[in-house]
Amino acid sequence: MKGPLAGLKVVELAGLGPAPFCGMVLADLGATVIRVDRAVSVVGGHTDSTRSDLLNRGKQSIGLNLQSSDAADIALQLVAEAEAIFEGFRPGVAERLGVGPSQCLARNKALVYGRMTGWGQEGPYSAMAGHDIDYVAVSGVLDAIGPSERPIPPLNLVGDFGGGGMLLAFGILAAVLAARESGLGQVVDAAMVDGSAVLSAMQHSMMAAGEWQTARESNLLDGGAPFYTTYECADGRHVAVGALEPQFYATLLEGLGLDGADLSPQSDRSGWPGLREIFASQFLQKTRDEWGEHFSGTDACVAPILSMSEAPSHPHNVARRTFVDANGLTQPGPAPRFSETSLDAPRAPVAPGADTDSIMGSLGYSPDQIVMLRRSGTIA
Q: For position 124, which CATH number holds?
């Protein structure tokens, strides 16, 4: 196996969104990730929906009915041979299924137990349902994103994935390093409300220094500055402008055919509305791709805003293999890059329970025992 995490064995209790993303990131980097799926009958094998479920790429899958004590014991046998397990259930669910932290750590005292929730394992909201939009609302991040009229959800990237799944992956790896040193495992409580708050550390720094206003579209980085925002082009498409530094701003003005001596100073906030109108008028003179070509290779910090379907074919993304064609699908490639431990192309997602027999065999179960457990509904 390739990748810096080769040799790391992780058990994932199947869930939604951020938890599977954590498993994908670990598998991309070479970890062996065994996904415990619900024991269901699968007809037709590898379906199109399974094939396109990129969050489950690179993993193995065993189907277990965790409502059964026998299945819970099988999961605990997996845990005994792993360095980490993680789940994305609401607080208390894993314990009821017999695979909570105390049960798992009793089998493997060096185990890292990762928990992925929105609100965390404790606090007034911990038992409440919610989604990404709710967690980034309470962390204060959502209020800062969008036009002045109202906040706009930043997809589910800030809570679910950046402040959730990625934070959980980082926490698991940090705890694994500690366990390898001390021989003792621990619980990693990764909450999206906490993670999205951590992502806003720079904005809090600016606020403490009096450099950040709470009103949306009134700051350098929230679309308030005319040199850090988006503009419509002649074809109705858009470009992104991020010319913050004076030297880059000067290059932007030159590329737009404007003389800085005739304009308000860049740092004069009172002149920003006028500058925005002038820039908007200029960008309407060419199409998005014409502006992209015009500014290509310059330090004006102007880039075409591509759709997700366009991004894989952009020359820069092609050169870096930011997207890869794997298993018949175009998809984001593993990241980051490593100079010595190169990464394999992502392996295709497998249907739930596809590896049940081989995993059970590795645990010492005979073919006859596997048949009996399948007939009883313990595995699938």
A: 3.40.50.10540
